[in-house]
Amino acid sequence: EVQLVESGGGLVQPGGSLRLSCAASGFIFSSYSMNWVRQAPGKGLEWVSYISSSSFTIYYADSVKGRFTISRDNAKNSVYLQMNSLRDEDTAVYYCASLFSGWYSEYWGQGTLVTVSS
Amino acid sequence: SYVLTQPPSVSVAPGQTARITCGGNNIGTKSVHWYQQKPGQAPVLVVYDDSDRPSGIPERVSGSNSANTATLTISRVEAGDEADYYCQVWDSSSDHVVFGGGTKLTVL
User: Fold this and answer.
1) What digits encode the pLDDT tens for the residues B54-74?
2) β-pairing verdict for A68-73 and A78-83
3) Cα separation, A97 vs A36, whole angstroms
4) Radius of gyration of chain B (CA)
């Protein structure tokens, strides 16, 4: 059974940093790309970042480029999102999601809430 | 950047057919994927590559894509179909994943 479990969310002040983790199980993690997607309270889905299986290819949404860094550790079956210079508008539930066969996400974690507030 | 436009809401009576559209410039040339999201839950993939269904998704859920509009069709709508639905594409011009704004399906 495929499982994705996010952690690391919490309350942080504007300008602060936070590192999210996503632990994967039930599939050969090192073979597949991963996404981070977020959802602000009461709003729609917003793609944040993509990383290929080997970490060779990485993409970011314009809204986070230069502030967020995606990475992965295939030995630990985990993908990470380092978030710096956080803003109020970064407040959201952050989901990690797998990409097995194409540019769509078959499996999603349950999400972790990040709240940026003073 | 590429924009996907969805109606904010669609309402349908039980047993009827719901059609949720997703508009985009020449979207017919892209692969469109659809997700269902119920309150407090993570999104669930319901259609990928325009019209394919993951295992476990009923046949009454279908998708199509042509010209400037992709459509998610849910036949014989049930109360359990009430949810938010999002379309999504990969925009190779910008190297971005793009989501539509979402459509709230209400079952009357």
Assistant:
1) 999 999 999 999 999 999 999
2) antiparallel
3) 6
4) 13
Chain A to chain B, count of Cβ pairs less than 8 Å apart? 61
CA nearest A104 in B: which residue? Answer: B33
Q: How many CB atoms lie within 10 A of CB B64?
A: 15
Please check whether residue B62 is in contact with residue B105, taking contact to mean a CB–CB distance below 8 angstroms.
Answer: no
Q: Which residues of B71-80 are buried (b: 16+ CB within 10 A; e: fewer)?
A: bbebeebeee
Three-state secondary structure call for residue A86: coil
Gap between the Cα atoms of A85 and B89, Å rounded: 29
Using a CB–CB cut-off of 8 Å, the residues of B that contact A are 1, 31, 33, 35, 37, 42-45, 48-49, 54, 84, 86, 88-90, 95-102
Contact A36, A78 (CB under 8 A): no
Question: Which residues on chain B are in Cβ contact (under 8 Å) with A110?
Answer: 42
Q: What are phi and psi of B84, to 5 degrees?
A: -95, 140
Dmax (CA) for chain B in angstroms is: 41
Q: Which two tokens stand for residue B8?
A: 């904010």
Over residues A45-103, the pLDDT tens digits come to 999 999 999 999 999 999 999 999 999 999 999 999 999 999 999 999 999 999 988 89
Q: How far apart are CA B16 and CA A117, in angstroms?
A: 45
